[in-house]
Design brief:
By secondary structure, the chain is mostly helical. Helices cover 68% and strands 0% of the residues. The protein has 12 helices and no strands. Helix 1 packs parallel to helix 3, helix 7 packs across helix 9 and helix 9 packs parallel to helix 12. The relative contact order is 0.09.
Length: 228
């Protein structure tokens, strides 16, 4: 398994062949091999900068339901890494949401902690960093993820926010930024930002606002939450 990671980091010239090889290792009988394959796949994606195919993303998402908690934890970390590599990819965003959010309620603490780290890094922290200019929050990966949330997945995000609040890991400016993004003026900003395909944009924006309201409502339950 160490050779897989070394090959991915050193970038064998046959990039496609290496990617296919790693996919076969994701279903290996040995958990150690599956874990290393996940790590290697992230290294491969980072070094190659090749677009992540639906097959690759599906394979990683499947590992989020692995019988081994170590593999589920690594799958969450790998998806977090892949989103950092391709934050503009709709398919990567969708896979991240579908794979990571359910792990927030995983019975294994180390797995749920990895999922919490992912939510903190890609949803909450980018929003908080827009505190000085809340309108920029609509340009962040956070908003892109929130727009893809459904009424069924919103409770998972709320659970994550609540868990991070109890751990005193909520970014200090999150509440103010989220509330500012929900003002009428902020709504106007979203419309001005993407005039094309108005119907689709309006629908996505409505989903994003609903998800953001879910975050705000959860924050309201945690007035004593500490900052991170």
């Amino acid at each position: 398994s160490a050779s897989l990671l070394a090959a991915a980091q050193n970038m064998d010239p046959t990039l496609h062949a290496l990617g296919v090889h790693l996919l076969t290792r994701l279903v290996d009988d040995k958990p150690a091999v599956r874990r290393t394959a996940l790590q290697s796949l992230e290294a491969w994606a980072k070094a190659s900068r090749l677009p992540l195919s639906a097959g690759v993303l599906s394979a990683v998402r499947m590992r989020c339901r692995d019988t081994s908690s170590a593999i589920r934890k690594q799958a969450a970390k790998t998806l977090n890494g892949l989103l950092a590599i391709e934050p503009e990819s709709p398919s990567v965003r969708s896979t991240w949401l579908a794979g990571v959010l359910p792990l927030l309620r995983d019975s294994e603490l180390t797995v749920s902690e990895a999922a919490l780290d992912a939510v903190h890094d890609h949803v909450l922290l980018p929003l908080a960093r827009c505190a000085g200019a809340p309108a920029k929050g609509f340009e962040s990966v956070s908003w892109a993820l929130l727009e893809r949330l459904t009424p069924e997945s919103e409770p998972l995000l709320q659970h994550g926010v609540s868990a991070l609040a109890k751990l005193k890991r909520l970014p200090s400016a999150l509440a103010a930024t989220a509330q500012a993004m929900l003002t009428p003026a902020a709504d106007d900003a979203t419309g001005d930002a993407s005039p094309a395909a108005a119907g689709d944009v309006a629908g996505a924006a409505a989903s994003g606002r609903a998800a953001l309201w879910a975050v705000v409502l959860e924050l309201a339950k945690q007035p004593q939450a500490g900052a991170a």
